[in-house]
Amino acid sequence: MIWYKWIKFYFHLPVIVRLLLSVTLLMIGFGYLIHMIEPEHFPTTFDGVWWAFVTGSTVGYGDYVPLSFLGKFLGILLILAGGGFVTFYMATLSAGTIKHEKNLTDGKISYKGSHHTIIIGWNERTKQLIQMIRDHKHNADTILIDHTLDQLSFHKHSIHFIHGLPTSDETLKKANIREAKSVIITADPTLTEQEADRQTILNIIAARGNNPSIHIIAEILTEIQRINAMRAGANVLVRSNNFMSSLFYQSLFQEDVQITDIIAKTLEEQQFCSEEIEDALTEQDFYFCAQHLLKDGKWLIGLIREKEIILHPSFSLQTKKDDKLIYLIPTDHANKHY
């Protein structure tokens, strides 16, 4: 009965572990036998095991050689049996490595880390975001979930790819969403604006349902779905259509100024940050707070009060206890905080 349990346990092990265990036991067995047959040439069992591994792997250093007929016959059996096992083990290990690499590229491998960022949707915005994360050398891993891609090279993009629907619990579990720090949901460019927003809201619900405390940033295209996206559980909404309309307007009436270059340079060299207001800055006017933060190289541009963003308020505006300050900081200086 005990042997049956051991055999059952053995066959439940992964194939690569079973092969390694079989090769090890086989070599130990041959090493012990050659030590018993020719103790004068193989003084210890370890010497015999060394000879078995060297002979079975067809390396053949020649430092230990059997001299008796029985020892040589044992060596023949070792080459026939052990050599085949070792070769099969090496082939299986190589095939397993290649298969794992293919599964990783195909998005079939689950992510086991934590405190990572999950990005939903593969498009130009996603590519630029990944490049920015890579350029600024953030330590947290980035996971991509997408169902339209068939393959994505990990070595080329430095991102862990999960293939599947972002509304599927199984897909989100593969991305280990319960241990994730944040989720970024981009609008699907293959759908109409209304359909893309509805899909985004479903993605928000699925992410929030799998991790109630995760920070969700979502892209919404239409104003009518903004409230629904907040109700679904989004913490931050990026309304790209509003931004693009404003950019077109500025470019239309500021023909002598390259607005896009200014914005790109600002985003490249400056980083938006927010933080809880300090006690020393509570019940102070906005001008005093701006002067205080400027000493640390922070350019105060607004605040968040009761979920409302107030940009460039009057200098006389009084701050309150639960306010959050919004400021710009040079990117190089901001990276030191990560």
TrEMBL record:
Transmembrane residue ranges: 9-34, 73-92
Family matches, as PANTHER family: POTASSIUM CHANNEL PROTEIN 2-RELATED-RELATED, POTASSIUM CHANNEL PROTEIN YUGO-RELATED
Record keywords: Ion channel, Ion transport, Membrane, Transmembrane, Transmembrane helix, Transport
Residue span(s) of domain RCK N-terminal: 114-238
Gene3D superfamilies: 1.10.287.70, NAD(P)-binding Rossmann-like Domain
Keyword Transmembrane: yes
One BP term from GO: monoatomic ion transmembrane transport
Entry's localization field: Cell membrane
InterPro entries recorded: K_chnl_dom, NAD(P)-bd_dom_sf, RCK_N, Trk_Ktr_HKT_K-transport
Superkingdom in the source lineage: Bacteria
Membrane topology category: Multi-pass membrane protein
Source organism (scientific name): Gracilibacillus salinarum
SUPFAM superfamilies membership: NAD(P)-binding Rossmann-fold domains, Voltage-gated potassium channels
Name of the protein: Potassium channel family protein
